[in-house]
Automatic annotation (TrEMBL), chains A, B, C:
CDD domains: FkbR2. It holds the Pfam family MC_hydratase. It comes from Malaciobacter canalis. Coiled coil: none annotated. It comes from the Bacteria. This is Mesaconyl-CoA hydratase.
Length: 351, 351, 351
């Protein structure tokens, strides 16, 4: 038996199989500084202990996406080392806050398999749960990836596809502290749940150019070892011709850009679905706009939820895009991300 | 009302107006590691808790410039998002030390306005004060920036220009611990206040090349969101043709380079004036020299002050520059920084 | 006397001379995050406090190589600022673990000198010891560097060359906690001391491309101020034509790549010898393979040692290299590192 882990192929997965991913990670202030430096994120709850304490936390909780990357990165070596493409996400939630000092780990169950008719690959559907050191759930997600087959023409004809909720149901109980009046001079935003309207569109003005060191530092920090992100020599002989940016980094950049207009929406409740519409490479400049898809009242009177669609575009101002897809339903070539997600935002206590 | 903050224009400012900048920031060890990695700074007081304790601190205090960037960065979104140029600094002081764990924030008062005769822009003069979580002043600065007007040809003819001290007066009481004999084997420098002479010039031998990821990581870490630093796509259509480096990063690089010759000058007392003489871009290599402008005795017998002029030059050895300005008083094209500042340096207790 | 440290030249060194290097460094979580982001290292003991505690530590100890770089970096300004080449290492050991919060420093004794017959340079042999704040040894190493002479044609004919052990002797007592059953679901590897065979070769599949910002951030983080790594303007006028990567960064990248196949070998016992066979530059992609040279039983029944040879190759898959040297004993042009070192690996307690 070889000592080298070459990753799993389509045939290696069985429905119901459970995988405990190695490499538990203790999260530190160093990781948090990296996240700010790599994305320019300005959501204040994640930058200031003083503000976090005013908002009911013992100290600043981690940005949900930083926790996502550090936890999710562990699954790459078992699930997607031989992935052709990360096809989608669904039902992603963030049940408990994570703090510096916490140690996170990930477990995965295989929930679906579909062999492709070309005989060369198949789609693997997984359900992953991230835990902290106290066995509390901190991440819950489903995703599906296209993976190479080992034996290209031996057909199993397996086709067992799970169904996913289009949007994650909103729980009765949401695990964030009771919000009193928000210090808008600290958060930088004066808009609350009441101020947003369904159909409203926010063209975020900032653009961020990403360089090779940025995206590779990010992905290495997350101990995500998918070769396509790091190995320029190998990528030169592929149609891409260069290293491909980790899609999660694009999500983080888009979220950071969305700060301008959504300053008080400091918590992600769920990611309902996400598509990496086109690849992103070093030197691309990312812009984004957000549409308010839905306003969701909660039984708590201090918060509400906004279902959002954030579209990220490369090397083109986002306001030039009215619809990210063309008449045939195909993504425009500059669109790199189409993200349907739900955020938590306080209600206006002054009123 | 739009939910997008497009920044303030010249007409939006009024003399006497006070702005509380959002985004208080808790400073961490991650930020300190970034500062060392981004600048190569070697001032020992800021790297070693053991040395800092010998020098009378509870633990290593932050490098003054790192605190400056993390605090100052907050003002960009309110003051200089629509800035054409950062014209100058004056009366910058560092009244109290800052430590990892402290949370800093910034407030600004508008102290002067001058409309430009071209009708397109004006100069805004501001006085900003940074505070820690205990409301102690940690930064006090004045600066002036040229800002776009909203309505190009409506003239207000406002011209109310404050006066600035050419150098900041030295206080009777300086807030650093009483210095005993300095461990020169730890600080790396054997020269003290007594050893420097007015007119002396130090040609610092090191040069540091800055890449795109370096300066954009720095500026994002400081949550400074001025678009000119990040958005390469936008900058390609400007005369600059590329992202402009944050001037503060150039100050930090010059200060780090000045270590070789000024190892014991570990505290900045004030920045008296500063000019970003020419723009700096990725791939430029920065060199620097320092002149001793003035020696200032203090009533404390353990320390003295040196007023310095550090000139940073790009892509040319600093010893080749005898005067950074030509006969017409214009900066030479390779000069990127002309900084007049005062440092605190211990006296030699062995004598 | 000039206040500028221009480094020592060959004539400045005397056998028996002792140098206390300045700049003690308190190691932080920021440094650890940087190391992971810069190298992609995945050895679990250094990432998880929970796992480290299961393995008998109070918290995660530092990766041996990160401690090496942070401690060793201090010697550059005194030993190798005028170095032409770092010729070799021997007898490098890691006597005690280092943790975040520890402060490390370095002392060096000159143990040999050999003038080159060309009259222009000489070889300086040094023995350096790193200490933590409690005066415990954390690093012990010998190395030799070729250094410029000040006076090119004045010959001293000095030739006093120390002898080095080919491999460091294994101590009776090894300072790591007693290892119980290893949690292979956390470390990511199921192979133990018993599973490896002398002569076995592991072709590590990952490749990592290094960019300018990566290697200069690393070297600046270590406060290693050798100009060849930072000053692109100066290097453009040398035969190299660009900045040279710090050899230590290549060692760290090779070690990080070797994780895949050596997951449980989480401690370096010694570096027996190391050659930087060819220079590495930005944009090079590093691959590596490892041969098991020797299996060393220890009187402790929980651990054994593996003497390894890891060869790093640039821009060529490591499996294409059967011997890193050609018939004349000269390194192939793509080989960048030939490292002989000994690691500690647990025995299989399940058997």
């Amino acid at each position: 038996m070889s000592k080298i882990n070459l990753g799993n192929f389509f045939e290696d997965f069985k429905i119901g199989q459970k995988i405990i991913h190695p490499l538990p990670r203790t999260i530190t202030d160093g990781d948090v500084s990296f996240y700010i430096a790599l994305t320019g994120s300005r959501f204040a709850l994640h930058s200031s202990d003083v503000l976090a304490q005013k908002m009911g936390y013992k100290k600043k909780p981690l940005d949900d996406l930083l926790m996502f990357h550090l936890t999710f990165g562990k699954s790459v070596q078992d699930i997607s080392l031989n992935a052709i493409a990360n096809l989608g996400y669904a039902e992603v939630s963030f049940p408990n806050p994570v703090f510096v000092g916490d140690t996170v780990r990930l477990e995965t169950e295989i929930i679906g398999l579909k062999e492709n008719s070309n005989g060369k690959s198949g789609v693997v559907y997984v359900h992953s749960i991230g835990y902290n050191q106290d066995e509390q759930e901190v991440l819950n997600l489903k995703r599906w990836v296209m993976v190479h087959k080992k034996n290209k023409n031996e057909m199993s004809n397996i086709k067992d596809i799970p169904t996913f909720e289009k949007t994650l149901a909103v729980e009765k109980s949401i695990n964030i502290p009771k919000q009193k009046e928000i210090d808008t001079l600290a958060t930088g935003g004066k808009f609350f749940f009441e101020d947003y309207e369904v159909g409203e569109r926010l063209n975020h003005p900032e653009g961020i150019t990403i360089d090779d060191s940025d995206h590779t530092l990010a992905t290495k920090l997350y101990q995500n070892n998918a070769k396509v992100h790091f190995d320029d020599f190998m990528m030169k002989s592929t149609p891409m011709g260069q290293r491909l940016m980790y899609g999660g980094h694009v999500i983080s950049i888009a979220r950071a850009i969305s700060f301008n207009g959504l300053q008080n929406a400091q918590w992600i409740y769920s990611i309902n679905s996400g598509a990496h519409a086109n690849p992103t490479y070093a030197k691309d400049t990312i812009y984004a706009y957000t549409e308010i898809l839905e306003k969701i009242n909660h039984e708590r009177d201090d918060i509400g939820l906004l279902r959002l669609r954030t579209v990220a575009v490369k090397n083109q101002k986002s306001e030039e895009i009215s619809n990210p897809k063309d008449e045939d339903g195909k993504y425009l070539k500059n669109v790199v991300l189409d993200l349907d997600y739900t955020v938590i935002i306080p209600k206006n206590k002054k009123k």
